[in-house]
């Protein structure tokens, strides 16, 4: 995938969300702690936000980075993401990056995290999530407990559970599968 096209889609998704909420760049800048010029560059495909910056923008827009990334690509009925496709966010290195494995606005969001992760950030997703450790090890804090996960371990989180996680090994690789925020969870089942 062309890196410029990825930038374009993320920028346009940020712009669409901001305009839906009828917010100015200055308001989003104030809420996110990022500068107006940087946000303008993101929206106009001249800058790629790091995962941390995208999370700050998402928080300012009342959504999640996952939702912005999902809205960045049109939904495809069949889409292959090859191992060597460069679809990770800026700021990553070959040792540390986030790779979107399901592009587009679908019922599932799937990301591969490689290397370290921002352990200070707490997450709370509306719908269910599964973390699967492909390699290395991680520590997850959820509902006041710490869980150490190694290669082959998985952790399921019901929607609404606050959690944070961090890599505890340099070679950590984590697969995160989450039900899309736009899917309404109902008691007694899902639809």
SSE topology:
Elements: H1 3-20, H2 25-32, H3 36-43, H4 51-60, H5 65-72, E1 97-100, E2 108-114, E3 129-135, E4 137-142, E5 145-150, E6 154-157, E7 163-167, E8 173-179, E9 185-186, E10 189-190
Antiparallel strand pairs: 1-2, 2-8, 3-6, 3-8, 4-5, 4-7, 9-10
Helix pairs in contact: 1-5, 2-4
TL;DR?
The protein is α+β, with helices and mostly antiparallel strands and 191 residues long.
Could you explain how this protein is built, in words?
There is one protein chain. The chain has 191 residues and is α+β, with helices and mostly antiparallel strands. 27% of the residues lie in helices and 26% in strands. It has five helices and ten strands; from the N terminus they run H-H-H-H-H-E-E-E-E-E-E-E-E-E-E. Strands 1-2-8-3-6 form a five-stranded antiparallel β-sheet. A hairpin with a 7-residue loop joins strand 1 and strand 2. Helix 1 (3-20) crosses helix 5 and helix 2 packs across helix 4 (51-60). Residues 1-8 have low confidence and may be disordered.
